Amino acid sequence: MRTDADIPALLAALKATHEVDQYPVLPTNISREWLLEGDDGMAWVAEHDGEVVGHIAVAAAEEDEYALAMHRLFVRPDARGRGAASALLTTVETYARLLGQDLFLEVVSHNTDAINLYTKRGWRRVGGYIATWRAPDGTHPEIILFAAPHNDQRRVLPVGTGKPTE
Asked: Helix/strand/coil (H, E, C) string of 33-45?
């Protein structure tokens, strides 16, 4: 579980992630407030050699009381390739299964490494939309919605606000 002592290392990792992946898209979101937003303390960190290198969080989905929304997954760029992201995803997938809840996530379409990871793990694309907010370049990013492999295959969580892409 994430603790307050993890926050400085997580913010440094988030800054490094933004520089490489533009995640988060908005540089103003490299903040404690954005990191902690909406997770009700249900967040985990990945460590390597005792050093915090990654983060993941879940929250109750606003659109569905029987679903969880995974968010704020990132791994410091220099710590990738060691299984941290997969371990964090396994933690959240297990947590959702134990609660008997479906699990969804949203990802910006330019984050192809993340999309490849989700697809490789069996997550399926179930929708998408064009964001109402603007990226620093003035565009409205495309957001893709994925459902976890264990989800009820008949259910699709309504997507966020914006123009649907599907």
From this structure: HHHHCCCCCCEEE
